[in-house]
Every structure is written in C-alpha cells, then in structure tokens.
Amino acid sequence: MPLACGLLLGAFTAEAHHSISGMYDTRRNVRIEGVVTQWDFINPHAFLTVEAVESGRAQQWRIELDDRGELSEIGMTAQTLRSGDRVIVTGSPSHREANRIYLGRLDRPADGYSFEQVGGRPRLRSTGRR
User: Fold this and answer.
1) Residue 34 belongs to domain with CATH number
2) Is there a contact between 92 and 102 (Cβ–Cβ < 8 Å)?
C-alpha cells in the first residue's frame, strides 16, 4: 500500500509539473507591451523577460514558452529575439507568481514577426524581416 501511494503521488507531482493549467490560469489572458531585456533559448523551456511600463513604473515580466525542441522545429533560434526588441505579448498569468505568464502570442510590430501557441503546438504566423 505505501508503494502504491508513493507511485500515485509521484505521478500526480509529475503531471502537475508539466501541466500548463496547473501553473497558469488558462481561462484568463494578460497583455503586455514592452521591451525585451533577456531571451533565454534554453531547455527544457525557453523564457523571455520583458520590461513593461505601467502607471509610470517599470515592471519586469517573465514569460515562459514551449520547449526548445518544438520552437527550433518552427525556426526559432537564440537570435530570434534580442534585447531592445519592442514586443506585444499575450498569455496566461501564473497562479502563484506575480508578473509571470505562459506565452499565447507574441508580436514584434517593427518587422511583423508573429508567434502563437496553438493548443499544444507553437507556430509562426509571420517570420518578419530578420
């Protein structure tokens, strides 16, 4: 019995770790306009840091993307986003952390680059001019 409980708890913990809805409120969307300060094209998930000014005050937002392998498959690289890029980001807010979201859509108006997360798969809507 203790082994079964341990296995069940381990399976639940693993599912919660990988579940987007477990970490983020997928029923809501947050929209942020700001400037990229950091782009971490890393495993297992890529992260973007954006500085947005709200009510005259700068706020840092940490944005989680899909896994690096899937992003690479659609053409994203470590050079896709750069510090200073102005972006518009929409995504699901974290249940637990302030200023953290899971990316649903990213637009870079300067060149038309557009990315979105559709269900469980990322896709480029437009590759921009870079």
Assistant:
1) 2.40.50.1010
2) yes
Residue 77, in any domain of the structure = yes
The neighbour count for residue 99, using CB atoms within 10 Å, is 16
The angle at the Cα of 110, spanning 32 to 84, to the nearest 5 degrees, equals 65
Q: Express each pLDDT in 15-55 by its tens digit.
A: 334 577 788 999 999 999 999 999 999 999 999 999 999 88
- pLDDT tens column, 101-126: 999 999 999 999 999 988 778 888 88
Position 85, amino acid = D
Q: pTM for the full model? A: 0.80
* Residues facing 58 on adjacent strands: 53
- 6 inside domain: no
- DSSP letter at 57? E
